[in-house]
């Protein structure tokens, strides 16, 4: 028996898949067990290694480092989204003299690793007389890289929409800017929201690269704590604690972003605009779009 996408596995295939699943689980457990054993064998679970985290001042500094991480992420996320929309709109322009420069900027920013960008801003710019704080070097590097990636995500979302969406917008008298703002971009953002969320998570994690240019974020403080011989140089425990904090932050970010995505999908205004765009194909009028633009309150 066949379905559209794949063949339903038979009895032998089911048994084979179960065996492979069990073997995979056993391999993963073996690898995890090996690492846990090595950590225990090297004394990473001893009280001395974890004694640093019994001090209040240490947790206060961890909270400060977390705040620095979130501050860099918040600025970088807002900047990357704004830059992403700007570059995507330029990339989608019908004019080559506009499209080509934006395309070049996107490709250059995407090609430069974030760490290289940070090095250039923090260590390279002072050579030409431009000094920059670590915070701004981290934020600008993250904005440039992630903004260019988000630009391609948004562009792909717009181009994946049926051509009839734009044509319907033009049919009711919208110009290109109106079609892009009211019709294409909202649908593209909703369609590509999972990818946008994933890129924002990458942005959050990439703030850890700031420790290389002395930005006092979580990894920087973990390295500092791990180098203190007074508390047994707990580099592994410090890394574990910081890793757990990063996991928690990423989960919270994903949860909030998913709530926003669900809210956008249920937005009455988005539904009204989409319905109004379809109106020309179904004998509707321009009044429906006007009402949708005003939030459904009528004229």
From TrEMBL:
Domain ABC transmembrane type-1 positions: 66-257
Keyword Transmembrane helix applies: yes
CDD domains xref list: TM_PBP2
Pfam family, one: BPD_transp_1
Gene3D superfamilies documented for this protein: MetI-like
GO BP field: amino acid transport
Cellular localization per UniProt: Cell membrane
Keywords: Cell membrane, Membrane, Transmembrane, Transmembrane helix, Transport
SUPFAM superfamilies, alphabetized: MetI-like
Superkingdom of source: Bacteria
InterPro entries: AA_ABC_transptr_permease_3TM, ArtM/GltK/GlnP/TcyL/YhdX-like, MetI-like, MetI-like_sf
Classification via NCBIfam families: HEQRo_perm_3TM
Family: Belongs to the binding-protein-dependent transport system permease family.
Name listed for the protein in its UniProt record: ABC-type amino acid transport system, permease component
Organism for this UniProt entry: Microbacterium testaceum (strain StLB037)
């Amino acid at each position: 028996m066949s379905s559209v996408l794949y063949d339903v596995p038979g009895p032998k295939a089911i048994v084979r898949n179960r065996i492979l699943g069990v073997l995979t689980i056993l391999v993963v457990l073996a690898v995890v067990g090996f690492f846990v054993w090595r950590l225990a064998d090297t004394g990473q679970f001893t009280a001395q290694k974890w004694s640093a985290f019994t001090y209040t001042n240490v947790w206060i500094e961890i909270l400060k480092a977390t705040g620095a991480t979130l501050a860099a992420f918040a600025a970088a996320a807002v900047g990357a989204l704004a830059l992403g929309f700007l570059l995507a709109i330029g990339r989608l322009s019908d004019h080559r003299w506009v499209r080509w420069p934006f395309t070049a900027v996107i490709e250059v920013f995407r090609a430069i690793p974030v760490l290289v960008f940070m090095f250039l801003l923090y260590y390279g710019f002072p050579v030409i007389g431009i000094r920059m704080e670590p915070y701004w070097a981290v934020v600008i590097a993250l904005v440039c890289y992630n903004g260019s990636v988000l630009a391609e995500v948004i562009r792909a979302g717009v181009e994946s929409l049926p051509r009839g969406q734009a044509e319907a917008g033009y049919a009711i008298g919208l110009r290109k800017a109106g079609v892009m703002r009211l019709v294409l971009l909202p649908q593209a953002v909703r369609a590509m929201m999972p990818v946008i969320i994933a890129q924002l998570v990458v942005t959050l994690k990439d703030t850890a690269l700031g420790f290389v240019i002395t930005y006092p974020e979580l990894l920087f403080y973990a390295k500092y704590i791990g180098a203190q011989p007074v508390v047994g140089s707990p580099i592994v425990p410090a890394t574990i604690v910081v890793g757990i904090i990063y996991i928690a932050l990423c989960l919270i970010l994903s949860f909030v972003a998913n709530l926003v995505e669900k809210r956008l999908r249920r937005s009455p205004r988005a539904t009204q605009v989409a319905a109004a765009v379809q109106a020309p194909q179904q004998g509707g009028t321009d009044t429906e779009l006007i009402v949708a633009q005003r939030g459904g309150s009528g004229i």
